[in-house]
Write a structure and sequence with these properties.
Layout: H1 2-18, H2 25-37, H3 40-43, H4 51-79, H5 88-109, H6 120-146
Helix pairs in contact: 1-6, 2-4, 4-5, 4-6, 5-6
Length: about 150
């Protein structure tokens, strides 16, 4: 959970520094999944002033991100004992990359985003917070293990 908080802080710091908006991709994934699941309330086309629908999709998109972060942290905890020889900073970086893939793969598969159209800044806005997530998650795990 601490790693997910660190990812959020890194993301919001980037948004504040560059003045960029929040990503619409998680909400788009929610809308596509809702349509595929037949959930008409979430999957219907968005009307111009339909703030409640936009907010629901945004909230559910964020919750999906927390599910990925918590799930990946739990997987790290379960697998760390099998990789004791590998330094934790390296494993943390790999964890961050894996979390990024797990977060982005559904969006790519569902065509909510097209990675070929991402600019360098887009990649950095995704990569850096995920690496922060992985390193902080691994560091916290190591600290708890030593305690």
């Amino acid at each position: 959970m601490v790693g997910t908080l660190a990812l959020d802080i890194a993301t919001y710091a980037d948004m504040a520094a560059r003045g960029r908006p929040t990503s619409s991709v998680p909400a788009a994934v929610v809308a596509i999944l809702a349509r595929k699941a037949g959930l008409r309330a979430l999957g219907r086309p968005q009307r111009h002033k339909d703030d409640r629908l936009r907010n629901r999709r945004s909230g559910l998109g964020a919750l999906m991100g927390y599910a990925v972060g918590i799930g990946m942290g739990a997987a790290y905890g379960l697998l760390r004992s099998r990789a004791r020889r590998i330094p934790w900073p390296l494993l943390g970086s790999l964890l961050g990359l894996c979390a990024m893939v797990c977060a982005d793969a559904p969006a790519v598969y569902l065509k909510a985003t097209d990675l070929r159209k991402w600019k360098t800044a887009d990649w950095m806005s995704d990569l850096i917070p995920h690496c922060v997530y992985g390193i902080i998650t691994a560091a916290c795990y190591e600290a708890i293990e030593r305690a």
